[in-house]
């Protein structure tokens, strides 16, 4: 597994998690996947540090705790008012190691002056040490999580001695928005990606990049956002001490 020079590694953990295909979240019952989705981990990484200049790629996740679920009776607010009893199935007592790296988002040529790899990497590592810049959630807002630095692969995982591999079948990977589209056919569109993940010994799942996912569904046309004065603050929001080694 390749380790990029602008990689960050962190551990994220919480009491509960709910990872699911957003199509199944319209209402009624909700049930989690047994493993985190790429989209959820990318959102956590962006909560640690994000600028539109960057495009985060999640390279791998390592499942540290045993996979176990818990079902709760919930009374969500209905679309027509009131509420009804629904059952949500969560993962409980979760802990993951995450490895991710960033690349510059070439869909934003207006941000070219903010492309300083070294400084962005230094800030990202500092934000990992601080537990992230924004609140962190494991799939849904009610599943609060915490972030701390780690070395990916160190420490004991429940799955270190797992024989063979575990395939999870056809699964939601994430969404590619127009801002981060790489493939020509995905430009100016919202695209949902699917794949077939495999967990290897040690609890490690190596992710395909979004553009590499073999199954895609184009949802709608979408224009990328233009950043500039009034809606963008780049590296200048940090002092020199924060961006230095």
List the helices and strands and how they pair.
Elements: E1 7-17, E2 30-31, H1 38-48, E3 54-63, E4 69-74, E5 86-104, H2 117-129, E6 136-137, E7 144-149, E8 166-167, E9 171-176, E10 189-195, E11 198-199, E12 204-206, E13 215-221, H3 240-243
Parallel strand pairs: 2-5
Antiparallel strand pairs: 1-5, 1-7, 3-5, 3-12, 4-5, 6-7, 8-11, 9-10, 10-13
Quick gist of this model?
With 245 residues, the protein is mainly β. Helices cover 11% and strands 34% of the residues.
CATH architecture verdict: 2-Layer Sandwich
Q: Name the structural class.
A: mainly beta
**Alpha carbon gyration radius:** 19 Å
The number of strands is 13
Give the end-to-end Cα distance, rounded to a whole number of Å: 26 Å
Please write the string of helix (H) and strand (E) elements: EEHEEEHEEEEEEEEH
List key phrases describing it:
245 residues; mainly beta; Alpha-Beta Plaits; eight-stranded mixed β-sheet; three-stranded antiparallel β-sheet; 3 helices; 11% helix
What does this structure look like?
The protein is mainly beta. Helices cover 11% and strands 34% of the residues. The two termini are 26 Å apart. The mean pLDDT is 88.
